[in-house]
Amino acid sequence: MSVSSTSVLHNILLPHSSLYQGLFGRMFRSLPAWTPTETNEPDIIAGLQNFANTAMSEAPDDPLGDNVNMPAGYTYFGQFVDHDITFDPTSSLQRQNDPNKLHNFRTPRLDLDCLYGEGPSDEPFMYDEHRGGMFLIGQSGEQNEPDLPRNTQGRALIGDMRNDENVIVSQFQLAMLKLHNRIYGQLMFPNGNIPPNFGFDGDKFAQAQRILRWFYQYVVWHDWVKRIVKDAIWKTVLKKVNGQYEYGGQYYNWEYQPFIPIEFSVAAYRFGHSLVRPGYQVNLNTDVDLGFGVEIPIFHPDRVPGQDDLALHDLKGFKNLRKKHTIQWDWYFKMQSSQGPFPQASRKIDPQLSSALFKVTEGPGGLNHLAFLNLMRSWRMGLPSGSAVAQAMGFTPHPVANAHEDVLWHYILKEASSPKGQSGKMLGDVGGTIVAEVFGGLLYGDNSSFVSAAPNWTPNQEPAIMALLPRGKPESAGDNDNDPAKWTWEVADLLRAAGAPINDTDVASTIATGANPVVNS
């Protein structure tokens, strides 16, 4: 779901076997590749470009395009999750091949390697040498405002560079760094008195990793995936039988270890691009041109690739946090303190992409509509048509007006936007099945996940988590709801436990002192 601008041009080969032992593979290896109507490469590229430009741009500020069932923060949580399981710096838009080898430099597991990297021994620059086992937390410029740790050129020192791509995802990465520190601190010093200097405890570090990973995995499956796929699909993929999970996926299978299907990474999971708003309200600091009702572009349309023009006010990342731009999270996720028009809504899952994504510094010509790049990638990698996948799954294909609408990625977006689908609220049958089966399969196939190792585990079983929640219960729980069996756990609870700034009071204190008044973070 990343909109990264990095593209290394190599001759790439992708596996045709769904049982491929590598980290990428295929779900539908026997289906033929989608076939364009044009007969030569320049015409094919021109056709894809024209279709992207004319049929896949949404009208700006169209209120009917909002998905009120999907708070805007989930767009960037989904991006964070994508970066946790996939990273392919060698994919190419320039060459067409029958691939047999595509590298995934991420483990195909929900294990937060985008957070931990190779660990404090191999990547010590991400960790605090005075507080052994804790991540470094940076500060932005001359103020106390917390930011990712950065080098002298403003580049973040984190496990995945893409999690600094924009302010929203970088602030979520920061929250997850803090959440590890707070869980590890609870294990090391249960009385809450954390000294400024202490040594590394490998056992406690591993325990903190396990707790945070399971908390995160639980939220991915029980909040994120459940939110974006039909309930009937979600309940079928992972079923609890006699206290153990059984995997019910029909199309995503593996022989040796789970892999990332390109039908997922190149098509189905790229639905997240359609969620992006042109801009976002950040917080109430009117003195830095923010405030209620002020939407800051996620990417400024006048920004020139390679030039960091500070005069252009947007939420672009890869630099020090702008002054007073700490994210107010109850404007992005539904929380007890969310009021009025908040949280902001994502856009609907449909074939129209935000104008903010019209220019991406990647692919032929340097600047392109992101939709064009996604269509190109689908064609280059030989993905089957959406209609063919629907038929293989036993679904009646929805009608397509021309060949370009049958590109698997576009097909999935149109399926979601149709009345027969979910009218843009969530994924339809084809897209939802692919996404649910891959996430369910990754969890089921990982012996260290909560699904495999502790299927009856819930976050409230961890004292180190419960001690960090200001309300002593999840954000979604009512004031009188004290039964843990009825609790649901959401992304909001990761942020709450991290001590991230939730409301305007938190933001003001964080900017002024570097700490949330509710917790000393």
TrEMBL record:
UniProt-listed Pfam families: An_peroxidase
Cell compartment(s), UniProt: Secreted
Protein name: Heme peroxidase
GO MF entries: heme binding; peroxidase activity
Nucleotide-binding is among the record's keywords: no
Keyword Glycoprotein set for record: yes
Principal location class: secreted
Keywords for this protein: Glycoprotein, Secreted
Superkingdom assignment: Bacteria
